[in-house]
Amino acid sequence: MYRFILTGIFILFFASISKSQQWTDAEIRKANTAGAVSYLSEEEKGVILYMNLIRLDGQKFYYTFLEDYINQYNANVKQYRNYDELKITRTNSYYTSLLKHLQGVKNLPLFFPDDKLTALSKGHAVDLNRNNLASHESSNGDQFSKRLSKYFPNKSMSENIDFGYSKSLDIVCHLLLDCGVPSLGHRFNIIDQKNKLNTVGVSIQPHPSYNYCTVIDFVSQPIFHTNNR
Known about the structure:
Helix content is 41%, strand content 15%. The protein is of the alpha+beta class. The chain has one domain: CATH 3.40.33.10. The strands form 2 sheets. It has a 4-stranded mixed β-sheet with strand order 3-5-6-4, with helices on both faces. The protein has a two-stranded antiparallel ribbon with strand order 1-2. Strand 1 and strand 2 form a beta hairpin. Helix 2 crosses helix 9. It is globular, with a radius of gyration of 17 Å. The chain starts with a strand and ends in a 10-residue tail after the last strand.
């Protein structure tokens, strides 16, 4: 078994992982950059933690947490008549391409949370909920770049939006696989190296059509945070 800690409040356990694929406490502490902040929920903190674990060791994440997600997802959709269409197989092109993309991901700079950026993420997620939208465009027509650049001018930036999940592992793995998204834009934001994205805002909110929506905003800026140890 391996263990990971979101905060000092609770511990989650995961089974069926070989010792060679075990995540150490040191790796978890390093990835848990949002652990001490008060403006994020535990699941929102978990989104940042999982994205950071990917950046610490992409291939190990592929064979541990992603495997857990796929196994649970396939078990959940087995009840549906179109199970064969819904299930994620080991020959799925998005699954196989992901391994190629994650093999070189190792010890990348981590994401750190920001309260102002989180407020912007929450504002958009609430807007999506209130107006039953599923878009990077706000109800007033603003694109995410316009929303973010008001407070983070002249910065590289991007945005991921996930629908349907409320749990951090599900959210991150769904975006990482990016099934049905030929550009793989969500995946490349998570493993970004080109744009030096390092600051994130996260908000998980209810949604009338998809039950939940999660907005993750990314910005590149100087980091002065001290990691949790």
